[in-house]
Design a protein that fits this description.
mainly alpha, membrane, 255 residues, 0% strand
Length: 255
Amino acid sequence: MRFVRHFLDALSFFTCLVPARMVSGSSLAQCAPFLFPCGLVLGSAASLGAALALAFLDGHALPCPLPALVAALVWLVAEILLSRGLHWDAVADMADALGSYREGEAFRAVLKDSRLGTFGALALIVVFAGQFLALAGHLTQGQWLVLILAPAWGKNTAFWLLSLAQPYDRRSLGGKFAEAGSRQNMALCLFLTLCSLLALFCSGISLTGLAMLCLFQALLIGKFVFWSRHYGGYSGDFIGALMETGQCLCLVCTL
């Protein structure tokens, strides 16, 4: 029952698929091992929406790319709605803060500012467009496993940041996840990464695509670790932005 409770806590925190639950700071770290299953649920729900859209459009004489484009849009909208746009907000905040070229507390002030700036808007457009086009490509090729795995892959990348960097404030949301960067969770992260790569290979993704995914994911994680150390530690925005951009990489590199 303890595992079920932590899984439901993770679902309530990262999605709106279950009613909101009171989750304490210590419980957040205990929810971390369920990030991957939570991502699988989110990917499956969004993929179901895309499948229903394709089934609805199947009886209409539409040009070849159009059904896939509509289904890709349905997938993205479903993912954003079901996750309450949690990580998308982090992408915008990180882009605005990094684009300000400020240091110290001035960087943190921009990061915490709820207003959307130019760099945040551009980052959202790039990440949205990248995922949208990649989703359409996968749907055209019938590669459904990637659509299901992508959110789980993105969430799994958080363990690297939690393990290789320190939080800016342990009392903050990001700091409450700091305990999740344990050796046990890193071993689980590596195991799930290898299982994901094997599943993607068996589903028809090329070795070149998987190699590109691993390379660019390592570079992205390294960059976030560098930023965390340079700016005095990571926060919830660092974690969320890494998850969303990791999801985008999974979709794009496996085309």
